[in-house]
Specification:
Structural class: mainly alpha
Order of helices and strands: HHHHHHHHHHHHHHHHH
CATH topology of the largest domain: Growth Hormone, Chain: A
Distance between the termini: 36 Å
CATH architecture of the largest domain: Up-down Bundle
Mean pLDDT: 82
Helix content: over 70%
Shape: globular
């Protein structure tokens, strides 16, 4: 999709039309994905085939919107401070949206009906809100006049340019690899958090602690992103990465040694009361490493944008849509990697059977149109907790191995991401200022040349 967005330009702009096309397609796909099954129009393998097609179309349309949106951000301004402000605003807004969606989808089921009903109405509301806000970008934002020379280059783009840009542009290659490692690291603990607390405190008791951890994930991320512009004025982006990775390593280590059992079932900081002082200390650890992760990401995304400037400065080709296509590609690749690590951790910890049982039980609860009765919920809870207790009684459960895999790989991925940017990325703040000035001169000269040719 990056190649298509780069190559084809509308009269209304290079990026805004693609943002709107992706938003419209995404909205239609999400509505169909939830409404058609709710009407009982697909069943069995037909339902499976329908969801495969819908998921593919949703991913396609969202990618169109995502690449168009992120490609437009560095095109709005070359000023480093302005870029930092814009990137910070975007990520803060995304974090707030994540928090609101999380709160709605976590607290509503059981209170407003079954999961099926809640997700149906949430999908309608969220998809329409998405279309509205993206349409505001389309109608209210104005793209700056593009360099006519870059337009000619974009029209000659080829699919293989996705790989050519990272082969020749070492800075972009380093940023793309580091971003993949970041996404892989940031998704591991959050991906297993709820199940981990089920394994420790039982089902569904552990969900309360996991939910609070998730809240601190959002709060920490927002706090860090709000703090980033102040930090960016004082130290370089590479030092922000270093500062962040040190905080991440320290507090992940503290979370591991105190929040995972060194032997037996319960960790040192163990308390079934979600608001006991032991858990409050764990929440603080989580807040710190999630906040540091937010700082790390912002520095990384700005450095990625600088690498696009370098592509134009060094090779005469901007191709921001092709360059930024690596971001959603990194997300998809890291998601697959995360899934493999999670399953490996479940197997190593002896919890894969419980993991499957939880999934089947929740499907049983959610299949009830009016929401599960108290009797069904209690039956499901007892079945899951009996199996968890049996694993500990038989000595098959190994939470320490589970924690070593998840925490160890997470910290290693963050460290690898930092080292790649430390030794493989060489654009400094001074280099960026120099490039911005030079590119501004080139763009002005090319625009003036085109205007003279028209006259």
């Amino acid at each position: 999709m990056g190649f298509i967005i780069e190559k084809f330009r509308f009269k209304l702009g290079k990026f805004r039309p693609w943002i709107e096309i992706g938003a419209i397609g995404n909205t239609i796909t999400v509505l169909l994905m939830f409404i058609i099954p709710s009407l009982g129009l697909v069943h069995g393998w037909g339902y499976v085939a329908f969801m495969i097609v819908m998921y593919f179309l949703w991913d396609l349309m969202f990618t169109v919107n995502d690449i168009g949106y992120w490609s437009m951000l560095p095109a709005l301004t070359n000023d480093q401070k302005e870029r930092a402000k814009i990137s910070t605003s975007v990520t803060i807004a995304a974090s707030v949206g994540t928090f609101l969606a999380f709160a709605l989808l976590t607290l509503s089921p059981g209170n407003l009906g079954s999961y099926k009903q809640v997700f149906l109405w949430a999908s309608i509301g969220m998809s329409l809100a998405f279309l509205l806000t993206q349409s505001m970008v389309f109608f209210l934002c104005k793209e700056k006049k593009r360099d006519p020379k870059q337009e000619e280059i974009s029209e000659k783009s080829h699919f293989l340019d996705l790989f050519r840009v990272v082969i020749k542009n070492k800075e972009l290659r380093s940023a793309a690899i580091a971003m993949f490692l970041y996404y892989a690291a940031s998704g591991l603990l959050t991906g297993v958090g709820t199940n981990y607390y089920y394994f420790v405190y039982g089902y569904p008791s552990g969900a309360t602690i996991a939910t609070i951890i998730s809240v601190f994930y959002i709060v920490g991320t927002i706090a860090a992103q709000a703090f980033y512009p102040l930090l960016d004025k004082k130290i370089s982006k590479k030092n922000i990465l270093l500062f962040s990775v040190i905080i991440i390593a320290l507090f992940y280590a503290a979370f591991f040694f105190l929040g995972f059992p060194m032997q037996g079932r319960y960790p040192i900081l163990s308390n079934a009361n979600a608001f006991g002082w032991q858990n409050i200390l764990l929440y603080f650890f989580a807040f710190m490493f999630f906040a540091a992760s937010g700082l790390f990401y912002l520095a990384l995304i700005v450095m990625f944008q600088d690498a696009i400037d370098y592509n134009e400065y060094a090779y005469g080709e901007r191709k921001e849509s092709i360059c930024f296509a690596w971001r959603p590609l990194d997300v998809k690749l890291s998601s697959g990697f995360n899934l493999g690590v999670r399953y490996f951790a479940y197997f190593a910890g002896g919890f894969y059977g419980v993991f499957q049982l939880i999934g089947n039980a929740e499907a049983k609860i959610n299949s009830n149109p009016g929401g599960a009765t108290a009797e069904i919920r209690q039956q499901v809870n007892d079945e899951i907790n009996t199996q968890i207790d049996a694993l500990y009684a038989d000595g098959k459960a190994n939470l320490l191995a589970f924690g070593i895999i998840i925490i160890g790989i997470t910290v290693a991925l963050y460290l690898a991401s930092y080292l790649i940017m430390r030794y493989g990325y060489h654009i400094t703040e001074e280099d960026e200022k120099k490039m911005v000035k030079e590119l501004a001169k080139r763009n002005e000269a090319n625009i003036a040349k085109e205007e003279q040719a028209v006259v």
